[in-house]
Amino acid sequence: MSAAWRYCLLACLLCLSQLAQAAGVPAVRMQPARDLPQVLVLMSYHYGYSWEDRILEGFEEWGGITAGRPVLHVEWMDTKRHRGLEQRARFAAYLTEKYAGQHFDLVMTADDNALEFALQQEMLAGIPIVFGGINGDPRQIIGTRSGVTGVAERFDLVRTLRLALALHPEVKRLVFMTTADESGVGTRQHLSDALARLGTGVQVEHWVTRRLAEVEGRLAALGPDALLFALGSLPLEDGGRPFSPEELVAYVHARSNCPVYSDLDATVGRGALGGYMNSGLENGRLMARMAQHVLAGQRPEEIPIVYETPLALLFDYRELRRFGIAERDLPRGSQVLNRPPSIFDPEYRHALLGFSGVIALLLLVLAGVVLRGRLLASRQAALHHQATHDDLTRLPNRAWLNEQLQQGKWGSGCTLALVMMDLNRFQLINDTYGHSFGDEVLTSVADRLAGLLDGRTELVRFSGDSFVVLRRLEDPLELGDFCEQCERILAEPFQVSGHRLSVSAAFGATLAGPDEIDRDRLLREADTAMHEAKRERGNHVVVFDRDIHERALRQFRLEAWLPNAVARGEIQVYFQPIVEAGSGGIAGFEALARWQHPELGWVPPPEFIRAAIESGCIRELTLGMLRAACRAFQPYLEVVSRPYLGVNVSVSDIYAEDFPGRVAAILAEERMPPERLVLEVTEDMLLGDVGNATLVLGRLRELGLRIAIDDFGTGYSSMSYLSSFMVNIIKIDQSFVRNLTTSASDQKIVRAIVSMAADLELSVVTEGVETPGQLELLRQLGCRLLQGYIYGRPQPAGSWLREDGLNRETGIRPCADSRP
Ligand code: C2E
Ligand code: CA
Ligand code: CA
């Protein structure tokens, strides 16, 4: 059992006994001390002399029995140091005084001096004695004294000698170092018998001495051809403390170069090579067993003296190695001390396995920690990538852009161009073909934009249908080329899922000088420029400049003001006539909004209409205009020629479901006959949810009013709505009129529209007629209804009524009068 296990067991037993005590149950029923056998233990030498210490250990084990274990009174005679007779007398006096009145059941003695002493003492007369450690024949000491038995110290060097000669075949000298005292005499006697029995031819030397220092000088001369047998116990100097056998062996071992042998188990490990070793422990155990028999009542005479004490066959691995002795040459059953740990050694194997287990566990934990770290890092990287990239196009996203611009990665020494691109009318694509088609378009656009990439360019999907291109420029003048590249990149139509599709985008560009990167400023400027570009359809790049900045500021101010202006009715109604080309009579009026800003003065309608859309008050503006126009139109209701009133409606109005209801209410409140009203809507109304637009238009027409398509030819190119009775009037956009006299293609377009409208039984109004040449040409092309400065600019609503009332037939001033 290993020492560790023994300790564990001991600890467990201790715990159990503590528990038992705590529970009030005595662990072992103890006999009262006075009833226990009383044993005097006499040791010849002193505490620390291992031979006797081990004998005592053997007694104290008491064969593992706890119940009835005797009380041991241990006394040390210390005769190695104090050998004189007067000392014995003093010791006897001490015992007599100490143990006066004490009864002993047994005396146990270790070694010759103690036995001799016990036999001589009056106070111990008649008490049985169990002895141990007597060399030679103990009967010579015991004499006729009865009641004595014990163990003779088995000093048997024959077997060790024979073994030593076999293990060192080359040996030439045998040196026996013995003490010049009574135990030395016995030893030498034994040796000469043994050597005689062996009949060895090797030279034999006896070093007989009283002190070690005497022989010290001769030790160094002992080489591997000699064997030194160091036996007994010696002081270094006269009167000094005697070295124990193991100290003696250690001393000579340190000073000689030959194998050292001895007879006591304690010397192996301290310098002795090994052999058949006398064991104090085994002697003590044997004595304890004999003592138990005596105390049990057996007469010592009946217990024979033991001459054959068990010998331990012990070797020191280090010494074996030192003198080249293989373990296989040792007798069977040899025990080797100090062997380096080996996995074949079961005790070591357990420790090794345990240790390996711990190391493996630690390694596993370490690997786990490392792996976890790696996993976390890669997961973090994956998460970061996911957070900074777009799933659809796999391009970096806005978060990535923010990171880049913030971390100053783009600021080193060159100018940075940032171009923001927003697809035009992408909503239409989504609404028309569905979102997955829209996704495909976006991917195709991203692929196309990838054509811009070179080593100094990065592409980012900024939001739904907007992208950002970042480029390092050597020279700010390169921006022009870059913008052209951007404009060209989308020029070619796309092929998406079998559809041929033109995609255009508005681009807003801005620059940042080296080390002037300000993310917010760059994005704001590019966005402003991009919105500017939005107004001019097609692939158009606007580079941010001071003017744009001013315009954006102005727009901002307008947006802030406008809701109030609408609420307070500050938007005025102007009328512009629509004239019957043949007769010159007024067929109707278009109501146009006018707004005079308190600080900015007259604001162009397209500008404030845009502001109204952006600021969300377009609905109020439209309905307010409708009501004001109807009210202003009241006098014209009486006019015999029955002109109509055209009112502009924005696309977002058409999408409000309650719009027809609101219109109906206004018409009723203002007593405006629906048949006199025309609502002008642009083709863009069909960019969104066509179904809804159709529904609203249908309900409006049910009210009895008419619908005109404004700016015809500039917007959405599907003309299916023309044939589905959704509209009544087409207003040809002024852009076709502007160059009509010189542009054959514009003439062809106008002629085609007029002819188509005739087929579909739609009326046509042509806008923007300014010159007699245009007027003449339009007449020839079959345009009947015309609108333009040639007939009159928009005027305050009432200004078209005849004040003199002369023309009672029409009640309207001739238009030509109004020309500026
Ligand atoms: P629009 O509906 O196409 O209106 C016609 C525009 O052409 C008017 O500009 C008119 O003054 C202008 N115009 C008429 N004849 C000529 C001509 O011979 N030459 C030129 N160069 N222009 C001519 P205006 O009043 O500045 O309005 C611009 C746009 O603002 C309108 O275009 C319309 O889209 C929008 N708008 C004006 N008032 C309203 C309104 O009350 N509601 C809505 N939703 N939009 C309005
Ligand atoms: Ca209009
Ligand atoms: Ca128009």
Supply database-style keywords:
single chain, TIM Barrel, 5-stranded parallel β-sheet, Alpha-Beta Plaits, Rossmann fold, 820 residues, rod-shaped, alpha/beta, disordered N terminus, 27 helices, binds calcium ion, binds ligand C2E
Low-confidence stretches: 1-30
Ligands bound to this protein structure? ligand C2E, calcium ion
What's the number of helices? 27
Radius of gyration: 62 Å
Q: Ends: how far apart?
A: 125 Å
Average pLDDT value? 88
Indicate the proportion of strand residues. 15-25%
Find the structural class using helix and strand composition.
alpha/beta
Shape: rod-shaped
Spatial order of the strands forming the largest sheet: 22-23-25-26-27-28-29-30
In CATH terms, the superfamily of the domain at 575-590 and 621-810 is: EAL domain
Q: Given this structure, which CATH class of the domain at 575-590 and 621-810 is correct? A: Alpha Beta
Short description:
With 820 residues, the protein is an alpha/beta fold.
SSE order and pairing:
Elements: H1 3-22, E1 38-43, H2 50-61, E2 71-76, H3 85-98, E3 106-110, H4 111-120, E4 129-134, H5 139-142, E5 148-152, H6 157-167, E6 173-179, H7 182-198, E7 203-209, H8 212-219, E8 226-230, E9 234-235, E10 242-243, H9 245-255, E11 260-261, E12 274-278, H10 280-295, E13 311-316, H11 317-322, E14 335-337, H12 346-388, H13 398-406, E15 415-423, H14 426-433, H15 435-449, E16 457-463, E17 466-473, H16 478-489, E18 494-496, E19 499-501, E20 505-512, H17 519-535, E21 540-543, H18 546-567, E22 572-580, E23 586-597, E24 601-603, H19 605-615, H20 618-637, E25 644-648, H21 651-654, H22 659-669, E26 677-682, H23 690-702, E27 706-712, H24 720-723, E28 729-732, H25 735-738, H26 744-759, E29 763-766, H27 772-780, E30 785-786, E31 795-796
Parallel strand pairs: 1-2, 1-3, 3-4, 4-5, 6-7, 6-8, 8-11, 13-14, 20-21, 23-25, 25-26, 26-27, 27-28, 28-29, 29-30
Antiparallel strand pairs: 9-10, 12-13, 15-17, 15-20, 16-17, 18-19, 22-23, 22-30, 22-31, 23-24
Bound molecules: ligand C2E and calcium ion (2 copies).
One calcium ion is lined by residues 710-711, 731, 733, 767.
